Amino acid sequence: MAELSGLADDRALLGRTSTAERVADILRSRIAEGYFPPGTRLSEDSIGGALGVSRNTLREAFRLLTHERLLVHELNRGVFVRVLSVEDVQDIYRIRRLVECAVVRGLGAPPYALDGVAGAVQDGRKAAQEGDWAGVSTANIHFHRELVALAGSARTDELMRSVFAELRLAFHVMADPRRLHEPYLARNGQILETLRSGAREQAEQLLAAYLDDSRNLVVDVYSRRVARAEPAGD
Q1: Quick one: which of 15, 60, 63, 190 has the fewest CB in 10 Å?
Q2: Using the 8-state DSSP alphabet, how is residue 83 labeled?
């Protein structure tokens, strides 16, 4: 299975004291990076073998990720990567706006530690030049993760780690990833330069408009997808 490639390499991250939490961290990261698209059935044998963990450990990791709304357990069928609803997408963006804008608003006096943010902007531009729109998507998520990290709060980082993983599930529905991500390359750079100049309030306004525009686009795609999936009335 292509989506399992690289999991054996992640096995080293477990160390000698492998735990369900560490397995969940690896799978969460893999979901966030797009290795397991929505609707994918997760094989206990394949994943457990790749990571070298017991079935019980893997099942506990699955339970943790189910609690985080990344996986669903279907009776007599197995565990699957969750397929989001329109309401899920709206809620994800609601949380993002609350948290990301609050982080920028609370930055305090400049200068800010923007190396991580700048690195994500550079990665996005490089991926776009190579026509790697999945890479642009990943860089975009990293950009927002680095923005959140400016708060210096481990709790906020942990909260948003699951939100960003769910966001990646939403992005998988987009038939044209270039259309979704390309316009935000320039906007990421604009937010970065605004923060470099110390204009925190302007950066927050740019970010709020950015998130609203992204939400409207993704929700529109989801709404049309749901409408196509629903059976016609009598």
Answers
A1: 15
A2: P
- What residue spans define the domains of the chain? 2-81, 86-229
Beta bridge partners of 131: none
CA pair distance 40, 201, nearest whole angstrom:
41
Collapsed DSSP state (helix, strand, coil) of residue 42: strand
Phi-psi sector, 13: left (phi>0), alpha (psi -120 to 50), beta: alpha
The CATH class of the 86-229 domain is mainly alpha
Q: Which CATH class is domain 2-81?
A: mainly alpha
Question: For the residues 217-229, what does the mean pLDDT come to?
Answer: 79
The pLDDT, as a whole number, for residue 122 is: 98
Do 156 and 148 meet the contact criterion of CB atoms below 8 Å apart?
yes
Residue 127 corresponds to which amino acid? A
- Each residue's pLDDT tens digit, 35-62: 888 889 999 999 999 998 999 999 999 9
Report pTM. 0.80
Closest CA to 123 of 136, 141, 110, 104: 136
CA atoms within 13 A on the CB side of 124: 25
Check whether 140 has a pLDDT greater than 50: yes
Contact call for residues 187 and 157 (beta carbons, < 8 A) = no
CB count, 10 Å around CB of 171? 21
Identify the sign of the CA torsion 125, 131, 134, 135.
negative
In angstroms, what CA-CA distances link 176 with 134, 145, 164, 171, 186? 11, 23, 20, 10, 18
Confidence check: pLDDT of 85 > 80: yes
